[in-house]
Amino acid sequence: MATSAKLRLRNLWFSFHKWIGILLAVLIVPISISGAALVWHDWLDETLNPGRYAVTSSEARLTPSQYAEAATPVLKPGERVSVIRYPEQGEGPVVVTAMAPTREGAARGGPPVRTQVWLDPATGKILDSAPSNAGAVRFLHVLHGSLMVPGMGRQIVGWVGVFMLISSLTGIWLWWPVSGSVKKGFKWNRQPRFSANLHHQTGFWIAIPLAMLSFTGMWISFPGFFGPLSGAPAQKGGRPTPSAPLAAPAMTPEAVVQAASAHATGAILTLTWPTEKTPDWKVAYEREGSPAEVEIADAGGEVTPPKPPRPETIARTMRRWHDGTGMGVVWQVVIFLGGIIPAILGVTGIMMWLNTRTWRGDLARRKKAKLAAAPAE
């Protein structure tokens, strides 16, 4: 490629890179910071709400009915227990979730608001209760996933991911030295200002992980587009509307657990009540690869054994790469930095742009002053 053509292309990429950073910084920063925080969402929730995890023992010593009854005092009138979640990996509280039979209190276009109750597994003592849409961790989830914008928020975040992917790839191009050895790119003092050097160096080292996070974020935001490309069936009609639990199930929770126990593969994870749309109980147990879910018909007690573990889908892989679930500490640290550094890049990029404007303004003023001071011919 000729030098002039190469410079024109470089200037084009520079313009894309610059204006993406300047115009979208106000969106990129909250998405990135909230994503970084959510890498450690369990730790964050425990730190912000220590009372929820102040259990005397993580051994579940009560029956499901006793846990459901223990949560009743803090439930709203008309709310029915829908799920009991047992301590994950043998640690933590029992969490009872309840919901009303109507969508009252639901955010527009969103799921109905549920009540969550944290219980001591050993005693059933109420440790805390809160609506499902409340709390700092929930706020971060909504901010990261939709920027708190109802309806189109998820698509906005997806398009931010598209532009972040472009910015990551163009950043690698712009980091590459125009002339000389590639070692020149790793030198700290490529630019006279600290902000510019910080931008170049952190941008290079995070570019590939940031491109991956941007692409997986796009995949999560646009499942209708990416799903068929991977062979997954196209989604129709959006997410199904949640249905309220049955007011008076025919079976007791204890009878359900007893019926499912023959198919248990490990510790119980969740017990889900039958609903008005799906009148089946569901009991999930720990299993290597994925939970084993047993279904029990509430009307007749017929048991449906768990299906064999399914191979992980591309959509699930994309989400795990994006949020770090089951990916190990090293990968989680990379994702955390992939959230913190874009905020730094946004700030330093704007500083570089302002410094350039100041420098060009000073240069223009000096040139004008020099012309004004030149003697007339």
How are the SSEs ordered, and which strands pair?
Blueprint lengths: L2 H36 L2 H8 L15 H8 L8 E6 L8 E6 L15 E5 L6 E6 L4 H11 L6 H23 L18 H28 L1 H7 L23 H8 L7 E5 L7 E6 L6 E6 L5 E2 L9 H10 L4 H46 L4
Helix pairs in contact: 1-4, 1-5, 1-10, 5-6, 6-7, 6-9, 6-10
Could you characterize the architecture of this molecule?
The protein is of the alpha+beta class. The protein folds into two domains: 148 residues, no CATH class; 137 residues, no CATH class. The protein is built from ten helices and eight strands. Strands 4-3-2-1-5-6-7-8 form an eight-stranded antiparallel beta sheet, covered by helices on one side. The two termini are 45 Å apart.
Amount of beta strand: 5-15%
- Termini distance? 45 Å
Low-confidence segments, given as residue ranges, are none
Helix content: 40-55%
CA-based shape: elongated
Tally of DSSP β-strands? 8
Q: What spatial order of strands do you see in the largest sheet? A: 4-3-2-1-5-6-7-8
User: How many structural domains does the protein architecture include?
Assistant: 2
The number of distinct helices, counting runs of at least 4 residues, comes to 10
Question: What structural class should be given to the helix and strand makeup?
Answer: alpha+beta
Global mean pLDDT: 84
Largest sheet composition: 8 strands, antiparallel
Order of helices and strands: HHHEEEEHHHHHEEEEHH
How large, in whole angstroms, is the Cα Rg?
27 Å
